Amino acid sequence: HKRQEGLNVNDFLWGGATASYQCEGGWQEGGRVESMWDVYLHENHLENGDVASDHYHRFREDIRMMKEGGQNSYRFSLAWPRIIKNREGEVNQEGVDFYNRLIDACLEYGITPMVTIFHWDLPQYLEEKGGWLNRDTCVAYTHYAKVCFERFGDRVKLWATFNEPRYYTNSGYLIGNYPPGHQDIQETVTASYYMMLASAMAVEAFRTGGYDGQIGIVHSFSPVYTTDTSVESAIARRFADNFYNNWILDTAAIGEIPGDLLGELKKTCDLSMMTPEDLAVIRRNRVDYLGLNYYARVMVKPYESGETTLIVNNQGKKAKGTSQTIIKGWFEQVRPESSRYTEWDTEIFPEGLYEGIQQVWNKYHLPIYITENGIGLYEDTSVNQVEDDDRIEFMDMHIAAVLKAKEGGCDVRGYYAWSPFDLYSWKNGTEKRYGLVAIDYENGLERRPKKSYYWYKDVIETDGKHITGK
Ligand code: NOJ
Q: How confident is the model at residue 6 (pLDDT cuts 50, 70, 90)?
């Protein structure tokens, strides 16, 4: 295998981020078994990632374009269903070979791989046994993680145990818009807990195996704001911060699930799966860094009335403005009218990234990577070059926030654009585009850089000199 040369580990990482299911395609190739997403999307006749960006066949081209676009790091995930064949834990050599080729291509191009071990594509054979509601999945995950460290650890030095466990459990078990499509608070708590336990178990395996490098977790980060400075709002803020952030960040970084959160949950949920032995595993295995995916802040006010309601806009402009979050007894989300929003109701608020980085740095004092940031847009990609000025403006403001936090003393080590090329956006399909490179899904999946691709290249090459922050 090739080793990486010429890259200084102190360099700021400027990269692009993807996820296996969202880009690879090749769903029946190379001995890959089914993931829960294949089954869920096929059964419900929904747009799927069978082909996606066909990265499985075109990864060389994609990585070359990243390199030519100035990027020095690629954050991608490994598909568990490509690597582990069955519940017995047998390794699929063809899957390992595929990722060996992909990692080697990164190194050949001087691109540092940052590898996510789990980005939502759980093997269906585990989902059938309860998925993340079953502690056996934590054991299976640890075995899978060890296989990854063993096979790829000679070249991969930056690992993430999980991508967005909060988002995964909320969508799959509370909102029900992602597989397995349940709406159950107890299940949400159980699955969230087991994912955080599995993360700690993998960190333990990484440490005891003596692998070289850093292991962290990637969180869907939503810094919490309130409409006023009343004590009621401060309480609502704490509830929301526990709900959105602390459950993941405290647990991973401090080794402790917030006590006040547990106290609240215990009023209505069974927490007996949290055994003293497993809590000790969580406590002694903290991460080396925190990966923050930032899209928007959340603003909240004290809970007033109504049942717990979680409405996510997966329909874009047809449903603009319908998003809503109420957590009964805890808080309600407020959507400031004066703010700008995308067609999918994501508020555009770069200050949240600046302030959020400061908060996370001051609280945990761990290195931070901005592991995702970007904007979903409708785009006509039949043209030669998409003039995505809105994306450029969005990235400019957010990169400015990152650089400002870094200059202010926060240890931020990298920024990853979501995404280096267009991808399949889960329930939002391929019409919600995030890429710096357009993929023409109608015409042989041809790749064509957008204006933002060249703009990002200039940002990287000039170390952000032309960033305006406006
Ligand atoms: C979060 C997730 O990690 C990724 O899978 C998703 O597509 C993007 N953000 C965009 O919403």
A: very low
What stretches of 227-320 show up as alpha helix (H) in DSSP? 231-241, 247-253, 259-266, 276-284
Say yes or no to pLDDT of 326 above 80.
yes
Q: For tokens 């990152």, name the residue.
A: 402
420, 65 contact by CB (below 8 A): yes
8 Å CB contact between 24 and 79: yes
* Chain centroid to CA 68: 25
Check whether 7 has a pLDDT greater than 80: no
- What is the pLDDT averaged over residues 394-417? 97
For the residues 176-187, what does the mean pLDDT come to?
Answer: 97
**Looking at residues 48-61, what average pLDDT do you find?**
98
Backbone angles phi, psi at 82, to 5 degrees: -85, -25
Residue pointed to by tokens 């901005």: 370
Mean pLDDT confidence for 17-43: 98
- Residue 416 is inside which H or E element, if any? strand 412-417
Residue 164 appears among annotated catalytic residues:
yes
Q: Are 138 and 203 in contact (CB under 8 A)?
A: no
pLDDT average, residue stretch 57-69: 98
Give which of 50, 90, 19, 108 is closest to 291, Cα–Cα.
19
How many angstroms separate the CA atoms of 85 and 92, rounded? Answer: 6
Once rounded to an integer, what is the mean pLDDT over residues 264-283? 98
Catalytic residue among 127, 164, 187, 379: 164
Q: Which two tokens stand for residue 376?
A: 């979903």
Q: Which of 442, 429, 453, 298 is nearest to 376 (CA)?
A: 429
419 Cα: distance to centroid of ligand 1 (angstroms): 9
Mutate to test the pocket of ligand 1, among 22, 47, 418 (most ligand atoms within 8 A of CB): 418
As a whole number, the mean pLDDT across the chain is: 96
What whole-number distance in Å separates Cα of residue 361 and Cα of residue 223? 13
Q: Which two tokens stand for residue 416?
A: 């990853």
Which residues have any ligand 1 atom within 6 Å of their CB?
19, 22, 163-164, 293, 372, 418, 425-426
